[in-house]
């Protein structure tokens, strides 16, 4: 049970890191959109939005955590391929690992975020229905 709990926790942590990454990028886009209204260019609005380099540093740190925990979770899922929802777990890991590389202003990133949310919700629903949270 300890191995299964480790596998479940790594998948949950990678999902939470993906949610934090998405929320922080939405926050950055919102700040840029607000600063762009008074007639500033997009480049100037981005420069003003992250003038202290705090948000950019936070996004880099989250991306590094995603890479580190994602690789551990991916290896754990590959070792424990006999646990249920193998392809959902692998898909969740791969989507979150590649999330920092897909970032953009286009609607493709929005669809990518929705795909991540659907897979993460499907995985959490599987854990809830099978009452795996009681064993953790």
Automatic annotation (TrEMBL):
The species is Ligilactobacillus ruminis
According to the lineage, what is the superkingdom?
A: Bacteria
Report TM segments. Answer: 12-34, 54-74, 86-103, 109-129
Protein name per the record: Uncharacterized protein
Q: Does the keyword Transmembrane apply?
A: yes
Q: Which UniProt keywords apply?
A: Membrane, Transmembrane, Transmembrane helix
